Amino acid sequence: MTISFTLLVALIGVALLFDFLNGLHDAANSIATVVSTRVLKPHHAVIWAAFFNFIAFAVFDHNVAQTVGKGIVSATVIDPQVIFGALMGAIVWNVITWRYGIPSSSSHALIGGLLGAGISKAGFDGVVWAGVGKTVGAIFLSPTVGMILALLLVLVVAWSSLRLTPMGVDKRYRKLQLVSAALYSLGHGANDAQKTMGIITVLLYSQGLLQGGFHVPFWVVLSCQAAMALGTMSGGWKIVHTMGSKITRLTPAQGFCAETGGAITLFMATVGGIPVSSTHTITGAIVGVGSARRLSAVRWNIASRIVVAWVVTLPAAGLIGATFYEIAALLSR
């Protein structure tokens, strides 16, 4: 189905709105630890995170965009109505969870919305199960890897700090946390912005506007990175509070371990083309550094509520996406 230029621009605008809300919703993931440890003030932290969100395109290839564009729902199924349903499913769910300060996954909201709209159109035959399998697997794997890496980093930090006074440790890791926050924001900007790149690219592909096969145009790359960075600069303070202090209290050294563990996890997933959740990843890492002190240091009731939100996100966004697809399909008849 070929659509008008006006409608094409409008859909791209909705995609960039989702990307902006993704940055807004997930700002806490990038800055929660560095703010809660008082290494940076909130308004300085969001600028720091937004800068590294934006420049991520210069570091990573577009493997995640390829997966989202044609590895979740077959590109032959995609049409403007499916794209609209996917984006609205993700946007509505993001707004609901942002409103109530629930750190759910923007990534999986988009995947859920895309699946809901795609299945509503073509049934389960249009689903690319290999891509869905590795994405769903990452729901459980990414926080686990983040937690394990953070725990290992806690051991390394403890061993390397034996000769330092507590004040010396604090001083060292206040500086190093700037580096770890930058690395985490770089990974976040790479993995999350590429999901919107994939959506816009497959929309252009469905309209026959890409020459030379499925690839991400450079203007799409810059637009998506900029939208995410602007969203990050707008902040998400309720979720910052949940991520930075409600799960467990952090010192600068622990914040460094959490951010670095999360960053390494995001780097590996991005290189592998796996659309993971930065929310899941940093939550697992924060739980890891908290439990390294003692298990009671983690507020498990808060962590369990977050896990419930993870499980609910895919089906909830899917139902919303399917509903908006049906509305769009009905209006286009």
UniProtKB/TrEMBL annotation:
It is a multi-pass membrane protein. It comes from the Bacteria. It is found in: Membrane. GO terms for cellular component: membrane. One of its GO terms (molecular function) is phosphate transmembrane transporter activity. Keywords: Membrane, Transmembrane, Transmembrane helix, Transport. InterPro entries: Phos_transporter. The chain crosses the membrane at residues 46-65, 77-96, 108-132, 139-162, 218-240, 302-325. Pfam families: PHO4 (PF01384). One of its GO terms (biological process) is phosphate ion transmembrane transport. This is Inorganic phosphate transporter.
